[in-house]
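Sequence and structure are no longer studied apart. As an example, we show below a sequence and the tokens encoding its fold:
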Amino acid sequence: MSPARLSAHEQRVLDGIERVLRRDRRLDRRLRTMTVHPGPGVRGLVCCRPRGRTVAVLLAVSVTLMVTAIATSAPWAICSFAVLWPFTLFAAVRLLCRWSGG
């Protein structure tokens, strides 16, 4: 399979686009260094500063799900608790670290 060649017109248009993009210094620097800046996904979660109310609500919902899962052995309650509990612990530890000054 051979690579497709561009027509003369398409090549001129492409050269013009590349010329305009090369003038953008920030884009040029970013492409040269190729540093990846993480979005708000994981970084936002790790850098979060949970409030006391948020942790209290998470804890209340987690305990309710745990009691429901123990009492009924319902798969949805067990799975919901299993998903929510790590987030609750993470938020509680972050809150306690913030309160203790650590």
